[in-house]
Write a structure and sequence with these properties.
The complex is a heterodimer. By secondary structure, chain A is mainly alpha-helical. Chain A has three domains: about 70 residues, no CATH class; about 100 residues, no CATH class; about 140 residues, no CATH class. Chain A has a two-stranded antiparallel sheet with strand order 1-2. In chain A, strand 1 and strand 2 form a beta hairpin. In chain A, helix 1 crosses helix 4, helix 2 packs across helix 3 and helix 9 runs antiparallel to helix 10. Chain B is of the alpha+beta class. Chain B has four helices and three strands, in the order H-E-H-H-E-E-H. In chain B, strands 1-3-2 form a three-stranded antiparallel sheet. The chains are: A mainly alpha, B alpha+beta. Chains A and B meet through helix 2 and helix 4 of A and helix 2, helix 3 and strand 3 of B.
């Protein structure tokens, strides 16, 4: 095998995911053959290995050559980058705020604390912020990298100066318009939920002050946390949806369809919670163990909670179905987007 | 970054901006990549092969060029030629270029 063939194969390896790889390899081989012939003629030298090495050295490293054919040199390209940064800032701020509130509650609950315990709590708070921020960065970067590759080019376009009309600033707000604080608030709360449910599920507890001593018992059982991966998917999708709303400032076909998709996942989660094993740890037994309730009261209250939560989730499914119908109706009746 | 590097980058950007027009203007008759590269060099525009070949593929994907493989001297070569769409756009690009040159001439005079 000639060096040129090996070189072309090396470049080809780096173009595994590029469309038209075989074509690129064929053209590269043909070009290198032409260049080699030309060089040999001009220099009056034979087409030997030394000349091939000289040529290939000049042509460039396979990595560099392959990179020129790569249609996606960016993980997150220029069209998505401003939104990526915006969501990242909101999320990191939300994570820091959520963890600060949670740590403050924890510190108050354990007070009085010694200096060492307080310093330990502060250290854990900082570590939690760093690890949660790194996790959030990774998740958001992954979500945006996927959108970058698969979202239609027509979406997330930077405003076109020719189409934008300053007169549009005079029009009254329309029902499809989205006020910026709504998606920001949604992103903040979803991230607080994501952080707590994934990183500190022990915080989701009922706290009881009994004889000057705080005690707590968890609200959810393992059956609830088995559905956490599905909930995470719905939450990450909600963050992306709110990012899209923040950028476009109005509901459009893509955002409505995404919203309907997320609501379908939410219905699936609610259905699995209702039909699965008990997901609330508030049972007659756990209530009795708090020593606040006597056996009869604990039995009555525990049964009411178990039945009541399933009725509430059933109503939740009904409400979500109504929202899907409303979103579908708006999807059909919405006005085409004005030049914005 | 040194001044020399900055200058090299600016010159590279300037050249990159004209390669599309240069390539389209020379592909009235079909040529394979290396012959186009040499022709541009002979006319005074040195273009890096790593820039030209992906550019030709991009212009073809945009419908401004057409290409066909031919077997010559026992070697397959991909020949490029300007498409009907490219022929429509080329005069507009030339006019735009003339405008830029005229403005810059005034500025630099």
């Amino acid at each position: 095998m000639k060096l040129i063939d090996r070189y072309v194969a090396e470049v080809g390896k780096r173009l595994a995911l590029v469309k038209g790889r075989a074509d690129i390899e064929k053209e590269l081989r043909s070009t290198l053959e032409d260049m080699l012939e030309d060089r040999a003629e001009k220099a009056g030298r034979p087409r030997d290995e030394a000349l091939e090495i000289e040529l290939l050295k000049e042509y460039g490293a396979p990595d560099k050559v392959a990179a020129t054919y790569n249609p996606h040199p960016y993980l997150i390209g220029p069209r998505m980058f401003p939104m990526f940064i915006m969501i990242l800032k909101i999320v990191i701020a939300a994570v820091a705020l959520g963890l600060t509130i949670a740590t403050s509650i924890q510190v108050m609950k354990q007070s009085p604390m010694t200096i060492v315990e307080l310093l330990k709590a502060i250290g854990e708070w900082l570590l939690n912020i760093v690890s949660a921020s790194i996790g959030a960065f990774g998740n958001i970067a992954l979500a945006f990298a996927i959108i970058e590759r698969f979202a239609p080019t027509s979406e997330f376009k930077v405003d076109d100066d020719e189409k934008w009309d300053p007169a549009s600033l005079m029009k009254e707000p329309e029902p499809d318009d989205v006020r910026p604080w709504e998606p920001i608030l949604a992103i903040v709360f979803i991230f607080i939920a994501l952080s707590i449910f994934n990183f500190n599920p022990q915080w989701i507890s009922i706290y009881i002050l009994n004889d000057g001593q705080w005690s707590s018992f968890p609200i959810f059982t393992g059956a609830f946390f088995r559905l956490l991966p599905l909930m995470n998917i719905a939450w990450v999708a909600e963050i992306i949806l709110n990012g899209m709303l923040l950028r476009s400032s109005r509901w459009n076909v893509s955002t409505r369809l995404t919203s309907i998709g997320i609501k379908c996942v939410q219905i699936a989660i609610l259905y699995l919670l209702i039909t699965g094993p008990a997901f609330l740890a508030i049972t007659p037994e756990s209530l009795q163990a708090t020593e606040i309730f006597d056996a009869d009261s604990a039995q009555t209250l525990g049964s009411m909670v178990q039945t009541g939560i399933r009725i509430a989730l059933g109503l939740g499914i009904f409400g979500t179905l109504v929202e899907i119908v409303k979103a579908g109706y708006k999807l059909v009746t919405q006005k085409p987007a004005a030049a914005a | 970054m040194t001044n020399t590097e900055s200058l090299e980058n600016v010159v590279l950007e300037l050249r990159r901006g004209v390669i599309v027009l240069a390539a389209l203007s020379q592909l009235g008759t079909e040529q394979y990549g290396y012959s186009l590269l040499k022709q541009l060099a002979d006319l005074g525009l040195e273009v890096d092969q790593g820039t030209l070949y992906p550019l030709l593929r991009r212009l073809e994907a945009q419908g401004l060029l057409e290409s066909v493989w031919k077997l010559e001297e026992a070697r397959p070569r991909r020949y490029y030629v300007i498409s009907a769409e490219g022929k429509k756009i080329l005069p507009k690009m030339k006019k735009e270029w003339a405008g830029i040159v005229s403005v810059m001439d005034k500025m630099l005079a």
